[in-house]
Structure formats: C-alpha cells, structure tokens
Amino acid sequence: MPASSLDQVVSLCKRRGFIYPGSAIYGGLANSWDYGPLGVELARNVKQQWWEAMVYRRDDIEGLDSGIILNRKVWKYSGHEGGFNDPLVDNKESKKRYRLDHLLEAQSAATLQKLVELIRMKTKASEIDTAPDKLINGLVHALFDLKSSAGELLTQAKIVDPETDEPGNWTEPRQFNMMFSTQFGVTADEENKVYLRPETAQGIFVNFKHVAETSRRKPPFGVAQIGKSFRNEITPGNFIFRTREFEQMEMEFFIPPPPYAEGERTDDEWHAHWVNERFNWYTDLGVSPERLRKHNHPKEVLSHYSKATTDIEYRFPGSLGFAELEGIANRSDFDLTAHSREVPNNTEARERLKLPPNPDSVENLTFFDQEKKQHIVPWVIEPAVGVARPMLVFLCEAFAIELVDELPEADAKRAGEQLAAYLKSVEKSENLDDGDKKAIVDYGRQLAAMEIGKALPQVSALLELKGATRIELSKKLKGLVDKLIETNYRTVLKLDWRLSPIKVAVFPLKKNEDNIVTLARKVRASLAAHWRTVYDDTGAIGKLYRRQDEIGTPYCVTVDFESLKENTVTVRHRDTMAQERVAIHDLVPFFSRKFSHPAHCREA
RNA sequence: GCGGGUGUAGCUCAAUGGCUAGAGCUUCUGCCUUCCAAGCAGAAGGUUGUGGGUUCGAAUCCCAUCACCCGCUCCA
C-alpha cells in the first residue's frame, strides 16, 4: 500500500530530516529545498543505483563530469539561447497566459490570414512565409520583432482565447528566458555574461571527441553524467517535483546513423531498448508497474531537438496523479551537427535540422566508419531524469501506515460511526461544489465499505480532497483518526535496502546498563565499517524500532543481557517485525548475505 | 506573472477585539524499564509569516509584503 496522499510523504520528509524548506530562517526562497541528513543519503543511493545500472554493469558507457558553466556559444548553437525563449502573451481579460505559437496554432485559417494582412500593413513590405508548415513560426518572429504594437495587432485580428472562445485583449508577446545567467569574471559586462547549464547533456556533446578517443570507443556507446542544472521554470512547485535548481542524471547514447543495413539495430530500436531499460530500473528497485506507464509524445509537442520522446510516468498520490518521471528522447544528429564546424553532408543535415552554420566551432563531432570509409555524425538516444523525482517516487511507493495490533473494538466502532456521520454531513451540505461533493462521497463510501482498520490510514487522504475540510465534522474525524493512528499503527518506509539511508541501527535494550551500552557501541562500530549504521538509546526499545521503521532502516540490532553472556544479539526485520538471534561475530557475514543481492530485501 | 485558498511551538490543533497566547504529540534531562511509540518528574520550544495601520487594547479588523497549496503557461 503506497502513500495515499503526497502530504503524508512531505510531512514525513520534513519531520524526520529528509528535506527542509530552503532558506527557511529568512522566510524561505520559493520552491527551494535543502536535503537533510537522511535526504542526502537517499539521494546518494538513488544516484549510486543509477550510476551502477548505467555505467558499472554495462561495458559500453563511460562517465563524465563537465562544468556547470560552459562557453556561452555552447548554448547559442544548442538552440537554448534562442529556442527556449518562447514568447508568451496574456489575455488581459481572462488573465490566461499562452505560449504565442500555441495560441496561434489554435486559431482558424481566416483569423491567421487577417493577422498576416495586419502585420504586412504595419511593417510595409515585410515578408511572411505563408507555407502551412512555416506560417506559425513566421508569425511568431514577425510579431516578436514588432515589439510594443504586437499585442494591439493580436487584438485587432480578433485572436480567440481558446479558454473562453471569445476574442481576447492581448498583451505584447514577452520573452521568457529560461536560463540562469551570471558573470564569468569580476566585471558585469556583457562579454562576461555566461549561463548556468539548463541540462547536463551539452557538456557531454562538446566532450564527445575527447571521450571517444581517450576511451577508444565507437558507436554504439554512451556517456553518463550526474549533476546540477538550472532553469527559470515559470511554474516550479509540487514539493521537490519541479524546482529551479535541480540535479540531473543524463546519459547520451551514441549510435550509428540511418540508413541501417539489414539486421542492424535502428535508432527506433535503440530508443525502445532504452525505454525498457529505464522502466525496468524502477521496477527492479521496488516500484509497482501498476503505477508506471509509458507515454509517447505526439509529434507536435516535441522539443526542438527531438525526433521522438517517450516519458515514463508515475501515478503520484493525490491531485498530482500521473506525472512525468523520466524522458527518453531520440535527439537524432541534432546536437553533434549543431556543434560541428564542417562535416560531410553538413549542408543537408543543417537544412534538415534547421540549424545555422557554425563558424565558431573548431571541431567536427564525427567518427570515422572504417567500413563505409567516411566520417559520420552519430545519432543520440538520451534517457534523462532528475534525481528528485525518482526519490519522491521511491518515498511514495515505500510509504505505508500499518495496523500493529488489532484496533480495540470500541475505537473501531467509534471511528466507523464518525466516518458515517461525516459522510452524511457532506451529502447534506449546501456549500460544496457538486463535483467535489461527489468525489468525497465516492471515496468515503469506498473507505466505509473497507475493514475499518485498513480504511483509517486513508482518511487523511479523504480529508485532503477539495472542500473536504469545509464540513464541520471533519475536524472531529481527523482528531480521532490521528489519535488512533498514533497509538495503534506504525509508519514504515518499505524501501529497497539499496535505497535506505540507514542500513542498520543498533540499540541497547537498557540504556542505564553500562555493559550493554558499551557492547552496543562496539557492535555499531564494527558494522559501520561496512554499512551506514547508527546507534540510538534515546527511548524505550519499542520507540526506537518505530523510529527506524519510519525512515526505512531494514534491520535493527538489539544488545541485551544475554548478549553479555552468550555473545549474541537480536536482529529485527523491518517489514515483518520478526526477530532472530545472531552471534555477534557472525553479524558482518550475516548482513553481507542480506545486502548482497536485491532479492534478500524482498523476503517479506 | 495572473486567479483562488492558507499562514498560531518541530507536528496536529485551541484561544467573543480584553488577564502572562494554551493543549496533545515530538525533542531534551533525570529516575524507572528484560523486545515494539509504557510510566513518573522536570525543561526547552512563540516578536501569532513579515512590515505598517485602526483601536485605550489586535492572533482576531484594514493595507502591503513574503511563503506555501490548487489551477494556467513549462516538461527532468
């Protein structure tokens, strides 16, 4: 049972030190987050698993760590400096904002024709290519060049707001630069202006030749990189899901370009291969395939560099729902061609990819095909993912609130009655939107039909539905449920051990018994040489277990009186709460077996 | 950036415009405790998001601002 609401996970993260709001003591900084003691371990483990799967376990991928700041020309020729600045316009009446090209695409042919005429009148002889595939692009550029009068023309042409189906009152198109800029050197002159990378991929492309030559690689081969990237997102949010500073794990896989001979693996096949590889990475680490899906982007919405893109999406709890986790793009020969000075078929490729010539580069990013006896620009398949998203997925997926003992009959009865009373009150309520009301009642009925002990952990998710807390009884219900959860349930993160921030926790059964404490500390030290191990004695044994459950520690070791005589300890398993007796001198081999193979972590 | 909502202790919540802003949980200290959030005693934790204003008096009313949540444009 994964988390039933994102808030449960967010709350756990803040409470236990996975993730804190950034710059909190100064009132915060919008959508920025700092990773605490446990968060940093989890993030490291996610990156470690990715690196192992992508680099170590394969023999066709190398690693790289390029700069966050690159020569500005990298971004000029990659298309980010121009292409990512999609002009946006606002409808002053409906307050809706649109990307200019998207807005124009939604207009009728007649409206566009009218707009073309208006622009021609305004700019006298200016040429707009009215060929169907170039019209929108031409209009966007023409309008943008017009600056201040463009909004007026849009309004005059009666450009329709897709939301309201009425002609809008439009602002001038405004450019939104997604890249962070800073200065490279102590003076803030224009020539010192540089950008923080919006993706790590370009650092790989510009190093293509270096890596290929120094590691003696030929396509197919890949280069992987993990590092921070920065984008001035228009709408960051949803906890760590979208932030302006974020860490990426990207791999560029270089393959021979088409045409392909009989039996040769094609770009589409490589693309499909990587989609599957990446999908399996998640399921291997414990994500249920039921909550994962692949989503192919329709041609119209593809990025400027992409021939095809497939997203792996995860169904997050609550209102976020299915959202993009990872993108696997077929970037074709776009990037390597863009950064090459001159290569065979250069003109053809540049025309096909709508790329300008590149007199600034000193390199041709090609490999020499011995069979074909010519220089060839490889194609690229790119699986790219942010570190935070898988982290959030693993947390959501591992999160569980479990009944420890059976719920006392009186409490169970009371909870059932409260829930029924609440639902009745919702149905009768008049200050709820019909849709909201239906959503609450439907979910509520579903819970009411369940065994009450299993339903209670989901009541908090029920009360997070829109409008749910507007009902007076919701507070009473929440109060009761919170109390019952606190006493009868345990929160447990059933993380795959490879992801767990702490692998083993060691406790003394009694903290005021010096011999036990000393031995427990010794045991911790011996295990810490191998795995992330902590010692804790600031509570009764039951509390210590629950604490570790909440942060996903797979095993706890307890030193007791018997340990002093027999040199054995209790090992307690997170998922089953089962205990077994293990000799102290056997602990390292014992955990080596447990932590040697992924299957061991799923014995429960 | 726009529209809507929310801001009281680490968390969940109290407090008619009126006494030193309270309670439970958490955290910490001491005692106790032989395996699943036990008990006892104590402590810490707040410029009520921030800054103004109205008032004899503001957590409460008004204005501004900041942050978060839900939508829109973004797509790792």
In a few lines, what is going on in this structure?
The protein is α+β, with helices and mostly antiparallel strands and 604 residues long.
List the helices and strands and how they pair.
Elements: H1 6-16, E1 19-21, E2 33-35, H2 37-56, E3 61-63, H3 72-78, H4 80-83, E4 88-90, E5 97-99, H5 100-105, H6 109-122, H7 135-146, H8 150-156, E6 160-161, E7 166-167, E8 181-183, E9 193-195, H9 201-206, H10 208-214, E10 221-230, E11 245-255, H11 267-284, E12 292-296, E13 308-315, E14 322-332, H12 334-339, H13 346-352, E15 367-369, E16 374-376, E17 379-386, H14 388-398, E18 399-403, H15 409-428, H16 434-449, H17 452-462, H18 473-488, E19 489-493, E20 504-508, H19 514-528, E21 533-535, H20 541-551, E22 555-559, H21 561-566, E23 568-573, E24 579-583, H22 587-594
Parallel strand pairs: 3-10, 20-21, 20-22
Antiparallel strand pairs: 1-2, 4-5, 6-7, 8-9, 10-11, 11-17, 12-13, 13-14, 14-17, 15-16, 18-19, 22-23, 23-24
This protein binds one RNA strand of 76 nucleotides through helix 1, strand 5, strand 11, strand 14 and strand 17.
